[in-house]
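Hi everyone,

Forwarding the result from last night's run.
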Amino acid sequence: MRTIFQVLKQFLNAGTYKWERKGDRVRFPVHGENGTWLAMIGWNEDDRWVLVRSVIGFNVPPAKRRSVAEFIARANYGRFLGNFEMDFADGEVGFRTSLAVPEDPLSPTMLTDLVYVNFAATDRYLPGLMAVVYGGRCVRKVIEQVEGTETEPLEEAGVESNAPPATRPPADEP
């Protein structure tokens, strides 16, 4: 039976990826239609899992992290495969897909699907993320545009977020 790494190596060598291995992880740049990011693929032969993580090439400034958290929540809502995440400590944003590998060997098709679902989502949402971080765009409208559900043209208003302000529920009276 082929190891997870053998299947991964076959996948990487069949593409144009310039990858490097460190232990049970490989990393390489990905050039999508909308930008470039770093891909990392990790695996564990004993526990039988594979993790693909795309890391966006910039860290979100502290002042924009709340808006990006809303962007991520809206982008993740309803997703079946994978999720966006942000490290609030440094503003790193990434997209994660993973797979528990059954006792049968990992097939090249399973790995290819796992990787390309990740890359497609990263590439699709990257312009929207940049519009929120660098353009101050309204998060809801950006997500609507990215997902093709907008009902009106995207405005250039410098709105950081359309989330309502946090309010405290009324105190119960005795």
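Residues 153-174 have pLDDT under 50 and may be disordered.

Cheers,
N.
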